[in-house]
Amino acid sequence: MKKIKAALIQHSHKGSREANLAHVAEQIALATKAGADLVVLQELFASAYFCQHEDPALFDLAESLDPQHADTLARKMSELARQFEVVLVASLFEKRAPGLYHNTAMVFERDGQVAGRYRKMHIPDDPGFYEKFYFTEGDLGFQPIPTSVGRLGVLVCWDQWFPEAARLMALAGADVLIYPTAIGWEPEEEPEEKKRQLDAWQTVQRGHAIANGLPLLSCNRHGFEPSPDGHTNGTQFWGNSFAVGPQGEWLGQAASDADQILVVSLDGQRSEQVRRIWPFLRDRRIDAYGDLLKRYRDD
Amino acid sequence: MKKIKAALIQHSHKGSREANLAHVAEQIALATKAGADLVVLQELFASAYFCQHEDPALFDLAESLDPQHADTLARKMSELARQFEVVLVASLFEKRAPGLYHNTAMVFERDGQVAGRYRKMHIPDDPGFYEKFYFTEGDLGFQPIPTSVGRLGVLVCWDQWFPEAARLMALAGADVLIYPTAIGWEPEEEPEEKKRQLDAWQTVQRGHAIANGLPLLSCNRHGFEPSPDGHTNGTQFWGNSFAVGPQGEWLGQAASDADQILVVSLDGQRSEQVRRIWPFLRDRRIDAYGDLLKRYRDD
Question: Is A196's Cβ below 8 Å from some Cβ in B?
Answer without folding.
Answer: yes
